[in-house]
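As agreed, record passed on underneath.
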Amino acid sequence: MSLSIRVILLVATTVYQTLSVWLEEQKAPPGNLINLGKYRLHFCLAGSASPTIIIDHSLGGIEGYFLIEELSQLARVCIYDRAGYGWSDPSPYPRTSYQIVQELD
């Protein structure tokens, strides 16, 4: 792949991600914010069947929320934004694997 095509792809994906994040910030969260004391985490629940599908939706954008209605017909679905992503507040704690698991729990 030539350098100019790589640059175009890099610019296009950067613009797409920037627009997705900007659009996300313009809307109210589709789910709930749970207060963990010093910060809040966002999650959205749908469906009631077993098992529960957990989607770690930490890359920004709203694409994951388009799936929730379809998946909720099969199982209970929880979409969760890690601290500092999506509608969740940044965490005051170090981003260790242990901390991320504690937040999800």
Remarks:
- The first helix runs from residue 3 to 26.
- DSSP finds three helices and four strands in the chain.
